[in-house]
Each structure stands twice: as structure tokens, then as C-alpha cells.
Amino acid sequence: MDAGAHRHINTSSDSELLLNIFADNLQQTGKFRINEEDIFNAIGGLMEQAKGAYACVAMLAGFGIIAFRDPNGIRPLGMATRRTGADSDYIIASESVVADACGFTGWEDIKPGTYQSDTSPSQNLTFIRR
Question: How far apart are CA 30 and CA 19, in angstroms?
Fold first, then answer.
């Protein structure tokens, strides 16, 4: 990452590496304000670059919460909802028992190689490049 993206990795954490790959892919858009297509493309690029097992959840300022899994689906990740009056709350976790304990229903696994966001919770955007 140092030579190509001019990003220094400070730890041996895989999370830091994934974050830097994702951030570099977003930075390559050259935009000040990104949109969902930019995020989709940045995650797709990350999936091409990162080999192995990962399930990620992140909050992007000015956008919302995103979640994605590696194309092989090795790490678990899912999403459920809870009605709060006229609105809905969303939970993203690695196990449905967490959602159940917090009163969420409708657990759905986030499919391998896909991206999910709280701005479009009913839409799974698929990458899957194995």
C-alpha cells in the first residue's frame, strides 16, 4: 500500500488493511461527495484485491451503514429489522441470536460477495467474482 497508494499501514490488523484498500478505492473516484455507485465499485475493487475470509460493517459519514462479505462466504453476516412506530431499525451482526435477543425479526444472511446498506436495505448488490 505504501508504494502504490501512498498509505502507511501502522499495524498488522487485517481490518486496517481492508479499510485502507476501501479508502484508496474511494479516493480514486476523485470526488468530494461519493454516491452508492462509487461505494459499490470501491467494494468490488476491494473484493478483487483482498483474498481470504472477511465480513465487514462500516459507517460512512454522510451516507450510512454498509456491510459486505467475501465472495466465498466464509465469515457469517446477516441483517434483521425491528419496527419502531412508523420507522424501522436495522441490525447487522454475525449471528441471528444477537438480533433475536434485541427484538429484531426477519433475519437474512447477507449473501457471499454482496453489499448491503441501510439506505437500501431491501436491495442486495452482487459482486461475486470468484
Answer: 18
Residue with cell 459507517: 59
For the sheet with 64-69, list strands across it.
55-60, 64-69, 114-117, 125-126
Q: How far is CA 24 from CA 15, 28, 41, 125, in A?
A: 14, 6, 12, 21
| 14-27 and 36-49 helices, crossing angle to 10° | 130
Task: Please give the average per-residue pLDDT across 35-64, as a whole number.
Answer: 89
As a whole number, mean pLDDT of residues 82-95 equals 89
Look at the block and give the residue holding cell 434483521.
Answer: 80
C-alpha cell at 102: 434485541
